Automatic annotation (TrEMBL), chains A, B:
Residues 12-124 form the Thiamine pyrophosphate enzyme N-terminal TPP-binding domain. This is 2-succinyl-5-enolpyruvyl-6-hydroxy-3-cyclohexene-1-carboxylate synthase. One of its GO terms (molecular function) is 2-succinyl-5-enolpyruvyl-6-hydroxy-3-cyclohexene-1-carboxylic-acid synthase activity. The keyword Metal-binding applies. Catalyzes the thiamine diphosphate-dependent decarboxylation of 2-oxoglutarate and the subsequent addition of the resulting succinic semialdehyde-thiamine pyrophosphate anion to isochorismate to yield 2-succinyl-5-enolpyruvyl-6-hydroxy-3-cyclohexene-1-carboxylate (SEPHCHC). The lineage of its organism: Bacteria, Bacillati, Bacillota, Bacilli, Lactobacillales. Binds 1 thiamine pyrophosphate per subunit. Gene3D superfamilies: 3.40.50.970, TPP-binding domain. Residues 430-548 form the Thiamine pyrophosphate enzyme TPP-binding domain. It comes from Enterococcus haemoperoxidus ATCC BAA-382.
Amino acid sequence: MTNQSDMTNYLQTFVEGMISSGVEQAVISPGSRSTPLALLLHRQEKIETFIEVDERSAAFFALGLSKTSLKPVVLLCTSGTAAANYYPAICEANASHIPLIILTTDRPHELRQVGAPQAMDQFHLFQSHVKEFIEMAIPEGTKTMLDYAYWQGMRATDTACQIPKGPIHLNFPLREPLLPDLDRTLIIEKATEILVGKKQLSEEQLLECVDAWQEKKGVLVIGGSHTPKEAEVFIKLAETLNWPIISDPLANITSCGKTSPLIMNYADLFIQEVEMSQRPEVVVRFGMLPISKNTMFWLQSLDDATTIYFVDETGDWQDQLKQTQVAIQAEEQTFARAIIEKVKVKTVDSWCNQWIDWQLTTEQQLNELSDMNTLNETTASILVHKKMAENGQLFVSNSNAIRFLDRFSTAEANHYQLFGNRGINGIDGIVSTALGMCATNPERQNVLLIGDLAMYHDMNGLLLAKRYNLPLTIVLLNNNGGGIFSFLSQRQLEVADFEPIFGTPIDLDFSLVAQLYNAKYIKAESLEQLALLLDATQKQPKFQIIEVVGDRQENVQLYEKVVAGLKEKFGKNK
Amino acid sequence: MTNQSDMTNYLQTFVEGMISSGVEQAVISPGSRSTPLALLLHRQEKIETFIEVDERSAAFFALGLSKTSLKPVVLLCTSGTAAANYYPAICEANASHIPLIILTTDRPHELRQVGAPQAMDQFHLFQSHVKEFIEMAIPEGTKTMLDYAYWQGMRATDTACQIPKGPIHLNFPLREPLLPDLDRTLIIEKATEILVGKKQLSEEQLLECVDAWQEKKGVLVIGGSHTPKEAEVFIKLAETLNWPIISDPLANITSCGKTSPLIMNYADLFIQEVEMSQRPEVVVRFGMLPISKNTMFWLQSLDDATTIYFVDETGDWQDQLKQTQVAIQAEEQTFARAIIEKVKVKTVDSWCNQWIDWQLTTEQQLNELSDMNTLNETTASILVHKKMAENGQLFVSNSNAIRFLDRFSTAEANHYQLFGNRGINGIDGIVSTALGMCATNPERQNVLLIGDLAMYHDMNGLLLAKRYNLPLTIVLLNNNGGGIFSFLSQRQLEVADFEPIFGTPIDLDFSLVAQLYNAKYIKAESLEQLALLLDATQKQPKFQIIEVVGDRQENVQLYEKVVAGLKEKFGKNK
């Protein structure tokens, strides 16, 4: 039997180790085996704790906290299937490099492989989707074991935070009695300082890039998630080189508050439609490919006359086109700033001017469409983007929602930050991740743009909003089913095959969902009304669901109308 | 590029292989990469398909289908985090030996490790919680590859169904285009016959048991899940030996419609309270330990004078007490029947009479308590058990719900079947598993007994009831939080520690939940009203939520009152 005081000292020392490496928040799901860690985290003043019964939502909430705070966040649950519910969020955290510290509790060795209740094999439970799996020792109170506990807490947290960041799983075998000794206070004086270096190119390597890029016909392609501040650097880089810049919405190029004629935010719409008389000599990519399939097809169409550079600090080779000729493994921002300093001569205007023309022609085409002035899922998405306030936070769901933003949102003067789960692009856990974002900065404007299926998938997450009074505005694009499939090849199917498998209408009355979780509910009837509602979120944030009723066919028709108009204007196929 | 017709033939042949080994149902979650398999399953007349957007609920629903039909059930989803949502149900299926055939779809090799969207490492995704992981070949249309596809479908399904049964994971790399050729029909004449043998003891081994058991003071302890028909055999075995029988509720001893004075259904209440002047010479256990902790402590208190036999066909060593002296690895029913035939002499009545006395005294004590005549969570649970109709199906949730049944339900003349998820005892996925049970035999009376936290955890599952008109009656024991902890050591904590971490009130209005999913909602105000409502479910099954408002403290107080009364009556500590 483990001594109660020894167990308490051991676990508290472990917690102190995590704190030393930067842990400030923990999300706990109730359970029996996890009792001592839950109580010690709850009692620990330096750690803010959140409680959520559904472990799947709890894990995505932690993901959202860490995504926004940029700090490691702890997850704690009991033994058994509880931990398996963490899996989707862990896969996403691993792919998008978010440092989660997952603590699972377990039967001790003598209660394994014996049919003990709520016990299962938790070793390497999350397979290749965590950076490390650590089986902790049974708690003991010796100096050696307290040093070990501190070390693992400190070291594992730091490992999660090292580039490439990612989740770490620690499994704690705990013996009964499970109640810690809450009356005793162990004073732990330890704190470990960590000085972190950055991957940087040498002067020589930098000059090689500058020589290869300046004065060349180039295109900057920015994928992955970046902060608005980082986005500004990319725009500055584009301006320095005088190159057009194509980006993913999550790169925050169109939401960092800077406008520039070089920002090709309509690339998805025009890039496949225009006659490209001048092909680029250089393409410089940062991070993963942007979401736009048309941009991907265009990149794929480039031949060897174009040299493709790929910059990524993590060492991930994110290039499904396998075109990379020069891979630059260095911290992106430091690298971009160094290039900006060294470039002396801009590329001639004639190169970017054709791009600017395409962009303006597309803008004109959109302005001509009356559908862009009535309320639908596309215009609602554009409006959400436009109505984001200074330092606001917008979380955008996968599937259609992010594609509306990608295709139709332009760089405006408003400065805010866009977030999403684009590691594996699931529609699971979106509500909880957005609430994690909101919980990090609840005083700001916080908005979630989401479709009905993603909303349904993570409805349980709404309990967090209710419990912690999180003032999230949810703009719900409700087309009653899987809207994305109407854009894909599946739409060729007969209705009898399409509707049950891909359309999947769910017929839920979301005003009841709002009532269930104490959210305000409003159905937006017009763009003007939606604008007023969004204006209000800037001044007085509150937990509310604004429903925009959409139509799966209408979304496609609007898109096709835009493309048809562009075909006409650009006359590529004539 | 894979030829569309080759891909179709390959996948259809695979599906035919699964059908040959007994697949009749599939649960599909929508997605793009899984399109060809989804359409082929949907179009296949020999397979009934269900669609559910939330993969976690889909997997538990499949678990419920298979648990009730005793046949292998297919799960299909797209690539990425979708499959990770299956994990909790897979862990449960593996622990409770349910044959699920999990089909995940994946990017082909050339789109792996390249940052392709919605792609992640799906190899051995479910770690040690599946019997097998199979990476399928890229579809090809040669005879060799069609033979391979059929073989894997047939063989993998059979492997899932071999003892010990369990889930199997097949990962399909699929190339675009993803639409199969639905116009062509491949006639597959293959069918493979499988003759399955059973583990049986030899005549000599059987006689060794009979000699060791007959005329001895013995106790039968039945854990694990058994059908009512199997339960009858265990009762017959007890009668043949003239031994008391202690069982887990899921063994269906108290719900198989047979009454016998030998059934010790109140064992949890009295076994630690009575003065046991005669200790057993033999204990024969079937399956895992029953849920009762008191029974476990009593077993633990036995010394070497008692020989413990453990019968389990699966080869699992389910004995956390590590007392097993004789392990019998043979099919339980065949073994029990053979023993019944061979036993010639019963044990003397004096042995079982003391047990029957304890049982009757406990019954008397319960009858004296006025709380047993008013509506509370305990009495509601007893009433549900009593009101189950001929061939009805009752699913009981984990945590408190199953403990109420274990402690307080008696063997009555009503014959029905009780189900639960007792592999790992999670409170996740209960609603969906119960709906899978209901979907298998929707014409019968189908009831779910569940607490509010488990109901909340799997609320999404209710969409299946709405979509498929599943007439499940949900009896919701709502004590607004984690009632089980009020029975455990955690209740010693201060309220400020207990309520947020263990009490976890969720304050949900379940009438809104009912409205959201088109269920009828009734709050039961008295035992009489609840009786009438349950009577009605026998005649006219419908999808409804009957809420019983409970109180966490009241549950404990009632239990403590019972135990105090028994201490008085048995006077062990006097």
